[in-house]
Amino acid sequence: MPKERRNEILKQLNAKGKIDIEDLVRELNVSAMTVRRDLAYLEENNKIIRTHGGAILNKPLVVESSFASKEGKFNAQKKWIAQKAVELIQEHSTILLDSGTTTLEIAKLLKEKKTITVITNDIKIAAELIDSNVKVIVTGGELQNKVGTLFGPVTEQILKHIHVDLFFLGAHAIDVKAGVTAPTFEKASIKKLMIEASEKTWLVADSSKFDQKSLTKACDLQQISGVITDYSLTHDLKEKLSEYLDVVTVEGGE
What we know:
By secondary structure, this protein is of the alpha/beta class.
């Protein structure tokens, strides 16, 4: 029955992420034309996206969310990631911290540092370091309300005139083929300039950000030195990512 076949197709897609028409023909014991009709029906109902020779799930794009909505989610994982990230920071270095809750956790671990400089476009990160020994430079720019990010022409001008040792890049969405993507053109532009201003870029993101896409590309994975994420990243995805960059997975106690 068509309904049963389509449910089986969706079941396989949820398990595998993508499927091929040839495999479905063999497994469902139907013709290629029947499979194509089923895929067309599922695409019309926004369940899948047809590809050359198969289909993938129709996942919604990741959109912008407020700081309050992100705070507290995957908090333990973000702390583990931050602890590992700080190990990459050398004395007397200048680091660039992207806006975000994971990079905020990095900032919390830098308060006792005396010889480093932090540049950031996040007012919450800057506020976290007010009573520290760290030299802090804020990019300036227009404030994104309810998020705390600074962006726009002023921010971009400053980023075009700096050079740093290490950049910790936050991400809304990461995909092996699409790279790192952001929910707005302004956010993507800032991230691109931060990467260009840095000797090395390390992506810091919990595993929930992977296998996701947002509106506009910030960078390809090849432009990044490595990624620090948590142990929940699947083995298959870790292998795929490792073709492009170093992958470090962490958990509590490491």
